[in-house]
């Protein structure tokens, strides 16, 4: 099974990326750094004749990469008790993919397994739960199997390495992803 990481962090080598790296240690995977791409907000045209106009950004290349993999890791810092804006833009654009004639998005996504790695600084094991629930609903809507998640506590660069629970959970996720 192939693994794809959608990295929603806006900071290079931040706590979320460090925890994700630990969770994937020794496992072949591909990572997409959403911060390095242009994924524009959705222009809602669901109720307009003809559906969605083409958008000149990187979304289609990312979604085609998602469709090529079996296990998708959504890695995001917790920003204001939810995912980062770039991750939210990416998921909002699923509305466009649901109406694409190029592929059967929902059927394809139903073949995938979803995982979440989230890191926050303000009591994240409690306050990130709405984010986890939000993603669970998104995955359910497209038929993806939500397998598991890891939540870490960190604020300053490198803090994640002090969160022994998150490090342990990342090791467990590593075993799960490798099986």
From TrEMBL:
Keywords in alphabetical order: Flavoprotein, FMN
Keyword Glycosyltransferase: no
Gene Ontology MF: a single term: oxidoreductase activity
Pfam families: FMN_red
Parts forming coiled coils: none
Keyword Repeat: no
Residues covered by the NADPH-dependent FMN reductase-like domain: 1-123
PANTHER family linked to this entry: NAD(P)H-DEPENDENT FMN-CONTAINING OXIDOREDUCTASE YWQN-RELATED
Protein name from the UniProt record: NAD(P)H-dependent oxidoreductase
Organism in which the protein naturally occurs: Paenibacillus antibioticophila
Lineage of producing organism: Bacteria, Bacillati, Bacillota, Bacilli, Bacillales
